[in-house]
Amino acid sequence: MLTIIAAAAENNALGKDNQLVWHLPDDFKRFKSLTSGHYIIMGRKTFESFPKPLPNRTHVIITRQANYEVPEGCVVVSSLQEAIAFCPKEEEVFVIGGGQIYQQAIDLVDKIDLTRVHTTVEADAFFPEINTQKWELVFEEFHSKDEKHNYDFTFLTYIKK
């Protein structure tokens, strides 16, 4: 199964200057619990936004740069199709960003795990629109802002109709 996992504002903003524009510890925990032990597909800029590779995950990095150097345990490919072909078919594989990769992947995936952050922010990377004719919302869990979270947010899971 191929799954997109993302956090996006109400205007579909993902981030600015290769950084997230919010800090939501419960979203990070959910991301970690869902993706740990799995292959994660990402663009080069998303990979470069991490201080180091995320533990207990196989990183599949898409870049057009020849001879792109990555740490051990990471794989470099030149396209989303090559990334998908590299990953095991019998496991859930996660597409984790960024905006261009999500745009390419949205019609290819089986599921979307989206954290909808209830704010509108300025951004330079955006999540694609979810076409409700093609996607069915099967899970929704609202979280209020609190001392650790500056924004209300909702965990949403969509499956392809």
Provide a short characterization of the protein structure.
It is an enzyme of class 1 (oxidoreductase). By secondary structure, this protein is α/β, with parallel strands linked by helices.
Fraction in helix: 10-25%
Percent in strands: 25-35%
Put simply, the count of helices is 4
CATH architect. name: 3-Layer(aba) Sandwich
- Into how many domains do the coordinates divide? 1
- What profile does the largest beta sheet have? 8 strands, mixed
Spatial strand sequence of the major β-sheet? 5-4-3-6-1-7-10-9
By DSSP, the count of extended strands is 10
Overall body shape: globular
CATH class, named Alpha Beta
What's the average pLDDT? 97
Return the structural class.
alpha/beta
Q: Radius of gyration over alpha carbons? A: 15 Å
GO molecular function, one term: dihydrofolate reductase activity
Keywords: NADP, One-carbon metabolism, Oxidoreductase
Function: Key enzyme in folate metabolism. Catalyzes an essential reaction for de novo glycine and purine synthesis, and for DNA precursor synthesis.
Family: Belongs to the dihydrofolate reductase family.
